[in-house]
Amino acid sequence: MTNRNITQQARLKLGAIGAATLLALAACGGGDSTLAPPVSMPFKTLNSTQPIVVGHRGASGVLPEHTIEAYARAIDMGADFVEPDLVATKDGVLIARHEPNITSTTNVASLPQFASRRTTKKVDGVDETGWFASDFTLAEIKTLGAVITDAERPKQFDGLYKIPTLQEIIDLVKARRTATSRDIGIYPETKHPTFHRQLGLGLEDRLISSINAASWNSRTAPVFVQSFEPGSLKEMRAKGLNTRMVQLIDADDYDLKTGKLTYAAPYDRPYDWTVSGDTRLFSAMVTPAGLAEIKTYADGIGPWKPYILPIRATLDAAGNIVDRNGDGKRDYNDASAQSPTTLIDDAHKAGLLVHAYTFRNEQRRLTFELNKDPVAEYLPYYRLGLDGLFSDFPDTAIAARSTYLKELNR
Ligand code: G3P
Ligand code: CA
Question: Most buried residue, 7, 85, 297, 399, by most Cβ within 10 Å?
Fold first, then answer.
């Protein structure tokens, strides 16, 4: 880390004082090109540092998400941060799951001893039926096995790995920091904070306690705390959380015919806005006024990636999507990323980092112009100055970042 920074500083200094001279020499054939050090180009990120790669739910593209094994794999792949989504158990322990409803991410439905726990709860205004972490003690949770959620991904590890606590994830990251001397961090998210508060299992105090216990409650700690609910972030700031924080920005879907994002409950606005009667949509957050408001309590935004590169299909005379790849379907694979919005620049002007989600390798998730190459998807985002991104396949994100660094002569 230190050596790399020194090298970068030296190159930047050289770039500032000598780039024009070197370019002029190269252009007219003057000088000995073998002696000329490469002139590195600056990063366009907010802090002029390289973009970070966050292992989204660990290396969730290849192992069951939110397991110690998936986080360790993400770190081995080179991720700078690992991302635990946090929910609470019945006895108030923070564990890593994407949803309070653990039906699709564990083998709980196959265990007869827990059959009677199947129930229906309202999550963010929507009835969900299944098994919920808040009805299980940590000891019971530890009897479950995690499963991979995407049918396209490897299933052979299903049921083998346990559900980790936040503390176990912190312990893993600290051990790997020591073992590798890399600046690895955690990027925890409070999941459905209003739901948990209504159950008397508020996530915020528990997360702050864990971060305090890790001696990581500072701006320079290897920690970003994220949430879709502004109230959760504001509460933690008010209660003394000093880490960097990121406001997530969602939408329901996109309309391939118009290239516009669409908004439908429960993904139309933060659920705490719904509860408080604030009728704005997530889209309000990406306006200059919205960004300025976020800057009052957070350090960055975490937008869904089409907020940066809208996705749009080509339409025929009848207004139908053109089957550009000729596979007989008219879908995402036929659409293309459009010209970028001004969101990254606007956020940077507001002093906010931008960490976009979520990058995935599968062919069905790649637009036409990428020509089935997942690495290619990352490059325009890096070139725009994106400060970081969440990837289910951190090795792909790192490979793309290496390509980008070469472009910058770094
Ligand atoms: O936290 C960034 C990204 O993960 C948000 O989407 O649904 O995976 O929590 P989700
Ligand atoms: Ca097609």
Answer: 85
